[in-house]
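Appendix B, Record 12. Input sequence as logged:
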Amino acid sequence: MSGVTASTRAPSPQVDTATPRVAVTLPCYNEAATIASVIEAFRQALPEAEIYVFDNNSTDGTADIARRAGARVRTETRQGKGYVVQRIFADVEADIYVMADGDGTYDASMAPTLIELMKRNHVDMVVGTRANVTRDAGRGGHAFGNRVFNILFNTMFGRQFTDIFSGYRVFSRRFAKSFPAVSSGFEIETEMSVHACQIGVPTLERPTPYGVRHEDSASKLRTFRDGLRILGLFMTLAKETRPAAFFGAIGIVLALLALGLSVPLFITYFETGLVPRVPTAILATGLIIIGTVTAVCGLVLDSLARARVEAKRSVFLSYPPGDWQA
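Logged structural output:
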């Protein structure tokens, strides 16, 4: 298989137990008003689980409150949810990972259902899609952006997900340990979804209640700033995962632009035998050349992208499934 070598890192051995180890992981930034109740809710829903709070430089005492509530607290000093997720997948050892937010908007009582869906269907990721997401503290911009980006995702990467921004997810160990996370911020959920579509990770979705944010808890998502970052990630991932389509589209646009500039030149030439607008003719010729080179580059990069997909898939499969997936 191209792009894959025998030196692929061997996975850490799993503990052979009848009951899988469950870790609840809660990325947090200034969630002092809600974190204690979120920890207690997950403790009641999953009494056998280890609960981790990953504090991302909170200034309101979130970490201390989480410790007093009985959670294991870790600190990620690089600001951004993507960095926190990278740290979670690197540091936490478990067979099943439950990830939610510390703001209390996700229903902890649904966690056993999501885990059971994963076990029963032998999948590696279950997404708790958000019902009533349009009520997100009255922020209509978030709801509109959510719809637009989901449509864009389905168009570009496949119709595997209906809520790519949901932060309520359950992962298998082999997904967590093989996911090559590079995003730094809120776009991390998009990266997870694209990765799952790209290498064919079996996934499921399950609608879950989505509550209104606590009045003392402020949203960390900035509609325009983070929207632009997510859009930029879409373009980057399209370039990386579908280069033939990405660069081919650019080539077609340039060719159409050249054609539009050339039509009047051809009409004049056939009528008079002259080409009076030489600069326009040079520009049209240059656009055709650039468009052709761009499209050819896309075809070459597509072969490299396929090799990368094979390598990622190989790393994913190098981690054995849990006993509950057998």
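The chain has a mean pLDDT of 85.
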